[in-house]
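Hi U.,

Before I forget, here's the chain from the pilot set. I'm dumping it here mostly so it's searchable later in email.
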Amino acid sequence: MQNILVLGLKLFLAVAGNNSDVDRNDNADNSPLQAVLKSVMPAVISAATGSKDRQELETMAGQATQVIELVFDLINTLTTSMSQRRSFY
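Structure:
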């Protein structure tokens, strides 16, 4: 129960203060979702793996964010493809 409360607090603080955790050297075209994911993912990964190394957590969070974005792009592409396919019939 205590671990859930700690994770909830970490997630709240990550979302509330996402400007401090976002890498300012990233491209200017980052979406708000990407900024939130980059700030929330280290807390989630830390709770799942028990790792405390900030550099390692930020690297894994960046990779997890990229995977999530790829899944969203795939879903968007499939949705577009299916809607175009239906218009031919």
